[in-house]
Amino acid sequence: MPADIEIPITDIEEEAERPSRTYRLDTDSGRIAGTTDGLDAVNQAIKKAIITSRFSNLIYNDDYGSEVGDMVHDRSVTQELIETVVPELIRDALSQDTRIIDVYDFDISFKNDEAYISFRADTIFGETEISEVF
Known about the structure:
Number of strands: 5
Strand content: 25-35%
Helix content: 25-40%
Number of helices: 4
Structural class: alpha+beta
Shape: globular
Radius of gyration: 19 Å
């Protein structure tokens, strides 16, 4: 083979996608209960990212978590501001996860001191709907 022929190495140069298999978190018992993968793992990652307070946990860097809970529980913040800002806070919290393609169709309602937030997300595993109470 002549020395001036180049062989492309594109497969090696491409960044490999991280596997989504992870431990399943049982939030009711506070324990790890086996493993999960695919869409269930992404759903778990979405919920964990939006309920984890950003900048408050030394185990995570400043890119992980969200300010949603802090904003919802701040007595000086109006419901109108929450409805306006929370979708962007959630998009920002999920922007680090390459498995999540888009986040949309936000519905935010209030009852007593709680905010009920639901939205849809397109992931590499399909569409999902997330609901969380803050």
